[in-house]
C-alpha cells in the first residue's frame, strides 16, 4: 500500500478543533451573515468594508490558533509516503503548512495572501487589509482584495487536481460537508477512475453514500488513527 497514490481533500472540519469556526454548523454564522452573503464578488462590490472585516477578523484569528493532531498526522503521512501524495484543502487558513505539509493546493485561495486587481499580482499579506490597502508591487491603493475564491469564481489549480484524482488509488475526504462544488464532486471522479474512497467526518456528509468507507468522529482522533493504520501501526 505504501506506494499507492493518495489524494486527500480537507475542509473546515479539520481546523474546527484548532478553534476556527466551520461554515455550516451551529456556529457557522459570522455576526448574523451567511457565508454566501460575504463570500461572493457581488457582496464585495456591494459592501467591500463588510467583506474586508470578515477576512481581516479571520486573518487576525490565525495568530491565536495552532495546527491540531489531524494536521500534524497528515504532514507525517506525507513525509513517510513513497507513492504520490497530494493534499488539496478548501481552507484558506495556514494550518496545514504550519504543520509541515508541502504537497499542498489551496483550491479556495489563502487568507494570508493579497491579490491586486490593478496589476493582477498576488503577494503574502499579514495583518488587516481593509478597503484602502496599497499594492506592495504596483503601489495602487484600494484595489487589493483577499486572495480567496468566492462563489462563481474558478477554484485554483483544477487541472493539477483533476490529474491527481484520475491517477489516485486512494481518495480521502476529511471534515467537509460536501455542500460546495467542484470539491464535492471529487469523490465521483476518483471513484470512477477506480480509487478506493474514504470519508472521515464528524457526521455523514451530504455525499457520504458515494464513499466506499466512512469513519465518523472528530478529525483530531480519527485522522491520526487512520494515518497510524495506513503506515502499518
Ligand atoms: C468536523 C469537525 C471535526 C466539524 N472533525 N469533522 C448549483 C449546483 C451545483 C453547483 C453550483 C450550483 N450553483 C452554484 C454552484 C457552484 C458553486 C457551489 O458549489 N454552490 C453550492 C452552494 C451549491 N461553486 C462555486 O461557485 C465554485 N466555483 C465554481 O464552481 O466555478 C466553476 C467551475 C466549473 C467547473 C469546474 C471548476 C469550477 C467556487 C466555490 C468557492 C467556495 N468558497 C467558500 C468561501 C471562500 C473561502 C473562505 O472564506 O474560507 O469556501 S464557501 C465555503 O464553503 C468555503 C469552504 O471552503 C467551502 C466548503 O465548506 P466546508 O469546508 O465543507 O465547511 P462546512 O462548514 O460546510 O463543513 C464542515 C464539515 O466538518 C461538516 O460536515 C462538519 O460536520 C464537519 N466537522 N467539526 C471532523 N472536529
Please give a structural write-up:
By secondary structure, the chain is of the alpha/beta class. The protein has helices at residues 13-16, 35-38, 41-46, 48-61, 69-80, 95-99, 158-166, 186-192, 219-230; strands spanning 6-10, 85-89, 104-106, 109-116, 122-124, 144-148, 170-174, 196-201, 213-216. The strands form 2 sheets. Strands 3-2-1-7-8-9 form a 6-stranded parallel sheet, with helices on both faces. A 3-stranded antiparallel sheet has the order 5-4-6. Strand 7, helix 8 (186-192) and strand 8 form a beta-alpha-beta unit. Helix 5 runs parallel beside helix 9 (219-230). It is globular, with a radius of gyration of 18 Å. The model has no long low-confidence stretch (mean pLDDT 95). It binds ligand BJW. Ligand BJW binds at residues 11-13, 16-17, 22-25, 28, 35, 39, 90, 92, 108, 148-155, 158, 175-177, 179-182, 201-203, 205, 218-219.
Which ions, cofactors or small ligands are bound in this entry? ligand BJW
Estimate percent helicity: 25-40%
Q: Report the radius of gyration as a whole number of Å.
A: 18 Å
Order of SSEs, N→C?
EHHHHHEHEEEEHEHEEH
Average pLDDT works out at 95
Proportion of β residues? 15-25%
Q: Helix- and strand-based class?
A: alpha/beta
Sheet with the most strands? Answer: 6 strands, parallel
Q: What is the terminal separation in angstroms?
A: 13 Å
Adjacency order of strands in the biggest sheet: 3-2-1-7-8-9
Q: Give the total of beta strands.
A: 9
Q: Determine the number of helices (DSSP H or I, runs of at least 4 residues).
A: 9
Unreliable residue runs: none
Principal-axis shape equals globular
